[in-house]
Write a structure and sequence with these properties.
By secondary structure, this protein is α+β, with helices and mostly antiparallel strands. 52% of the residues lie in helices and 16% in strands.
Length: 228
C-alpha cells in the first residue's frame, strides 16, 4: 500500500513539474503530449504512450490526424483517449475556421497551410473541399464536396456554381489531399480546375486557387503557374 502511495505521489510530482515547464515554455513536443494525456489517463504513467505516439506517427499533426482505430493500436491508449485526441483536432480546425470568418482566409499563409494539414492529414482516401468566400476573402463555408478513392475524387461544377450563387460568394478555392506522399498536381487535377474556373467566370465568380496536401506539404496551383 505504501509503494502504491509513493508511486502516486511521484507521478503527481512529475506532472506538477510538467505543468510548470509548460508555463515556462520548456516542454518538448512529446512532453506536451504527455501533459495532455495525463488529463485523459490520470492514474497511469503516460510518458511511454506519448513517446510511442511520436515514434509511430512522427509528429504532432500526424498524431492528431490519425484515425481512432490507428490510435487505439498504441498499447495503453484506449478508445476514450483516442476520442480525446480527435476532439483536440476538431477544436483546432474549428478555431481556424472561426478566424477565417473574421479575417481573409489567406491573411496568414502558414496558418492556412496548417489548417489544411490538420484537416486532411492522415486521410486514406481523397477528399475534395470547396471554400466559398465573400468579396473580402472571408470564409462563408468550408464544404466537403466529395470523397473518392486513394488516388481519385470528383468535382461537380454545376453544384459548386449553384452553391456559390446561393451564398453570394465572390471567390472559390479548392482543397484536396493525396494520400500517397510526394504527389503534386496531376494532369487531371489541372484540367478539372480549368473547367471549374471557366464555369465560375460565366457567373462572375473567381476561382482563387487550388491547393493539394500530400505528405505534409501544401502545394498551390497558382504558385506553380498551373492556374492562370
Amino acid at each position: 500500500m505504501k509503494d502504491k502511495s509513493l508511486e502516486l505521489s511521484l507521478r503527481a510530482g512529475h506532472r506538477d513539474r510538467l505543468r510548470q515547464k509548460f508555463l515556462d515554455g520548456e516542454l518538448a513536443n512529446y512532453e506536451i503530449m504527455e501533459l495532455i494525456l495525463g488529463y485523459a489517463i490520470p492514474r497511469k504513467d503516460v510518458r511511454p504512450i506519448a513517446r510511442m505516439l511520436y515514434k509511430k506517427f512522427g509528429g504532432t499533426f500526424p498524431i492528431l490526424c490519425a484515425s481512432i482505430d490507428d490510435l487505439e493500436r498504441i498499447p495503453g491508449l484506449g478508445h476514450n483517449t483516442a476520442i480525446f485526441i480527435k476532439a483536440m483536432q476538431k477544436i483546432i480546425i474549428d478555431g481556424y475556421r472561426s478566424e477565417a470568418e473574421e479575417k481573409p482566409v489567406l491573411h496568414n499563409r502558414e496558418q492556412f497551410d496548417n489548417y489544411i494539414r490538420i484537416m486532411l492529414g492522415g486521410r486514406t482516401t481523397e477528399e475534395m473541399h470547396v471554400l466559398y468566400m465573400d468579396e473580402n476573402l472571408h470564409l462563408l463555408k468550408d464544404e466537403l464536396h466529395s470523397t473518392g478513392t486513394i488516388d481519385c475524387t470528383v468535382l461537380y461544377n454545376n453544384e459548386i456554381v449553384k452553391n456559390a450563387l446561393n451564398m453570394g460568394a465572390k471567390f472559390v478555392a479548392l482543397i484536396h489531399n493525396h494520400p500517397i506522399p510526394g504527389l503534386g498536381f496531376s494532369q487531371e487535377d489541372i484540367e478539372i480546375t480549368e473547367q471549374l474556373k471557366n464555369a465560375l467566370l460565366n457567373v462572375r465568380i473567381q476561382l482563387y486557387d487550388h491547393f493539394v496536401v500530400s505528405g505534409g506539404i501544401v502545394y498551390s496551383m497558382k504558385e506553380q503557374y498551373w492556374l492562370k
